[in-house]
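Protein 1 of 2
SEQ + STRUCT:
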Amino acid sequence: MAESRGIEVVVFDVLGTLVDEPGGLRAAIREALLASDDALDASDTSDAFDASDVSDASVNELLAVWQQHVELEQRRIGQGRRPYASTEIIDAEAAQRVADHAGLADPAAIARLATAGQRLPPWGDSVAGLERLAQRFPVLGLSNAGRTALLRLNAHAGLRWHQALSSEAVLAYKPAPEVYQFAIDTAGCPPERVLMVAAHSWDLRGARARGMRTAYVQRPVGDPPTDSDLFDWRFKGLGELVTALAMG
């Protein structure tokens, strides 16, 4: 177990680490299918997606469409092949792709689906874990979510920060180094005194490359560490993390 003494600020990834992003998107996609089905005229259903019996497989297929678009576009931005676009823009594009794939035509349902990333549920230990940790350390959120999306997401999920940072401020997406440097600069202390917490190993690798301490938190979704990942800690939940830091 790594030594926790010397840590001054704790930085959390948000999407997937503190909120259930895939679960929230699945719920929003299912809602859009059902809402669109309700809005269809009975004489105009022949070519539409049959949402009367929405299966998990159908929803998962559409979730994959969403995720693939977001990952591709953020990668293109990171490679300089597309100018920076906020998550509000990319999510609206993803929602339209889902709609096209499913044959959805209800504008209201598509517009609501585009904001699904602002209504993601927290994991069961997220709110209490943040509250406990914030009594001992300055706590920052560091998210790829755009400023407006992050504001609304935090309010919906009940996440309480000392400060929430959007990568939109540096016009980049993690794991771009400037995003982690933004958090380090905001923390106002050397990177080795800043702990990055995430459920995604790719995120922690980016933080570690900037000199930050790292802690992996296991979630049902995410990117587990490999045997070669040299993170400072690996925890099964936020309770373990809070206990470890409290003992430092």
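Protein 2 of 2
SEQ + STRUCT:
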Amino acid sequence: MASRITFIGAGNMATAIIGGLIDSGVAPTDLTATAPDSGELAPIKERLGIHTQTDNSAAVSGADVVVLAVKPQIMRAVCEELKDAIQQTQPLVISIAAGLDAATIDQWLGDNNALVRCMPNTPSLVGRGASGLYANSAVSEAQRTLATQLMEAVGIVEWVEDESLLAAVTAVSGSAPAYFFLMLEAMEEAAVSQGLPADTARRLAIQTALGAATMAQQSDKDPATLKQNVMSPGGTTERAIQHMEEAHLRTIVADAMQACAKRAEEMAQELGSH
């Protein structure tokens, strides 16, 4: 990936992606990160060896890719500051801000920009992310490949051709780490109530979740079959699964994901109107 990449914002997600890019072979000298405070940038520069800059417009100059990694609430101000520089250099712009649609960001940047929206998730911080991407019509195939390579540095990438589907991506991966953390929390609490020490319960629950996810990832069988393979007729697992089904766990999950997707759509409208 012989491209110069500038990150506007140097928070956890930006730093994770930068680290993943360096681990995948990108030269630190091809990477730049910005923040308003040079003190915030100093540890990143020292640890990763990248360029840093407090002037966003100067950092964009000469960049092939600009990653917008700032909070949605300040995105408009950042984009309007960058507009002239972006219009002059015409880089690929990748936004990892939740909620803001491509048309709104494109307008704030002066229109007709090659723009990719990315919905990453927090496991990207440990190189196990799942990102959903959407490209507007100005993005070339080469730029799509570049965006894929960039986000694959921290996990897997799935493209959607309809931007509205990013709300579903938010529900199934963007927000979903919290669902699994809730399950781990509930399992630990239940195991403790049955007499296990909390640290033992936590280690067993986490390792079981990791093992189950690894099996699902590596197997050619679907989750329903893998679940069935654990269950013996009249056994302990069958009893537990039967109880979850009777408690309508599937409905709870479906309703929660629908609520998540609906809120993502509401946020897009709210943020776009400001």
